[in-house]
Amino acid sequence: MDVAVFWVLAVLAVVGGVMVFRFDSMARATFSLLGSLLCVGGLVVLLGLDYLGIVIVLMMTIEMAIMAVFMVMYMMNPAGLMPMTMIHNKKGAAVVCGLVFALLAAGILLAPWPARRGKAPADPTMELGMSLMGPQMLTMMTLGMALFATIVATVVLATRRGRYDRFGDDLRARHADDPVRGGVGR
Amino acid sequence: MGERTSLWAVLVLPALLVGVALVTAGFDAVLAAGARRGRPGSLRETVARAVEPGRQVLRHLVQQPRRTRASDLPLARIGAGLLPVAAVLAAVVLPLGFRSVSDLPEGIVWFNAMEALAWAAVWLAGWGPNSTLSLIGGYRFLAQGLAYELPHMLAITTAALGAESLRVGEVVGAQAGLWFAVWMPVAFGIYLLSAMAMAFWGPFDQPAGRDVAGGAGAELSGADRVLFLGGRWLLLVVAAAFSVPLFLGGGHGPLLPGWAWTVLKTAAVLAFLVGVRRAIPTVRMERYLELAWVVLTPLAIVQALVVAVVVLNR
């Protein structure tokens, strides 16, 4: 049963991945990639890592839905509605892909895989949490702060309007002057 | 807590959900008719109104389907079909009393992941027909999703935190003494808000708003339309029903058996949500977006902090 599920999911994941480059529609390419990623999430569940697999499904669905919007929005042709292709620089891409594939395949075949030591934990979610949040807590906190600072910095750099535009030159305006009125009493 | 049921429950679950959704839709139709006339109708009229959603379903099924020009039919079909599927898959971890179809160890994350599929579904259904109004509806739903998802995740995480488990059965078990709604009222309120937003319902029905001719589902007809609009009702029912094990003590209660309490509480939440739609006008998304980020998210974080401190000191 597990073997059958593995092959079905694996084949679907690969087919979905290939179709990303075959479709000529932005929306189809995006959602074919989503389908492929959902199959990968299923494969991770199959490995016994339920939590990670379900989180992959959760994160990838939201991410691809948002990405579809952004890709359609920022396409050069009108709203991404013209036929398009995901393939650019065909020869260079083919060479790079071939090399990476050869490298990964060689790694799989040549690496001395260790035999399993010990048994799988009864609760992999708990173990995952402990290994991330136990000894690595400081790393996680630093990483989180760095990511958050990046997001804030990017928004600050990207936005054209600053606080002086919103609250006047002496920052004394009682109400922010925003082009879009917000939902908290402004 | 959280025993597994036998295999037949897999078949019963969708039928049960559809039944509850039809009853809720009937209730809503009766309320709508009453509001239009300003007085409650006679018994016969009420019954006629209550069976109206069922008749609508049949009418759509026999109707000649419309097609738009240059539509991406497969995507629209996937979108319309995915909505009820996502709702039913999310309901797999819903306990009726203390038994669910599958009490997954990560049930709460599973529920969240399946409702995320609705994001993709509504956008696809909006994009597929190659129509402006439905596309606007799809985009609005994503904007709405961005606004509700973060406070929503924090709210359901708070319930998991209170029970120290992601298993829905254990969350129910942890509420034997005191319902989570009592000592996590903020999380409960945010959950109810996002439950409506998830089913683009009540004040959050902008993705299917009248100003865009029904929005995301505007161009769907025939069986596609039944799947899409029915899926929306299913989402509402599932989201409302999930608040019962999360915050309202699941099947816990005096005298009655567990399943009866679940049904009663779910019915109460559903009636509340249906009533809210009548009482509160539609919120514009850019306004709710700011409210969600500036008010609801910090509130949800503070609520989670309070619960975390209580749990650590227990």
UniProtKB/TrEMBL annotation, chain A:
Compartment annotation: Cell membrane
Pfam families to which the protein is assigned, alphabetical: Oxidored_q3
GO MF terms held by the record: NADH dehydrogenase (ubiquinone) activity; quinone binding
Keywords recorded for this protein, A-Z: Cell membrane, Membrane, NAD, Quinone, Transmembrane, Transmembrane helix
Highest taxon of source: Bacteria
Transmembrane region(s): 6-23, 30-48, 54-74, 94-115, 135-158
One GO cellular component term: plasma membrane
Enzyme Commission number: 7.1.1.-
Membrane topology: Multi-pass membrane protein
Reaction catalysed by this enzyme: a quinone + NADH + 5 H(+)(in) = a quinol + NAD(+) + 4 H(+)(out)
InterPro entries linked to this entry: NADH_UbQ/plastoQ_OxRdtase_su6, Nuo/plastoQ_OxRdtase_6_NuoJ
Protein's job: NDH-1 shuttles electrons from NADH, via FMN and iron-sulfur (Fe-S) centers, to quinones in the respiratory chain. Couples the redox reaction to proton translocation (for every two electrons transferred, four hydrogen ions are translocated across the cytoplasmic membrane), and thus conserves the redox energy in a proton gradient.
Similarity comment text for this entry: Belongs to the complex I subunit 6 family.
Protein name in UniProt: NADH-quinone oxidoreductase subunit J
Highest classification ranks of the organism: Bacteria, Bacillati, Actinomycetota, Actinomycetes, Kitasatosporales
UniProtKB/TrEMBL annotation, chain B:
Keyword tags: Membrane, NAD, Transmembrane, Transmembrane helix
One Pfam short name: NADHdh
Disulfide bond found in the keyword field: no
Transmembrane segments: 6-34, 75-96, 108-127, 139-160, 180-201, 233-252, 258-276, 288-312
UniProt GO BP: aerobic respiration
GO molecular function: NADH dehydrogenase activity
Stated name of the protein: NADH-quinone oxidoreductase subunit H
Organism: Streptomyces liliifuscus
Organism ancestry: Bacteria, Bacillati, Actinomycetota, Actinomycetes, Kitasatosporales
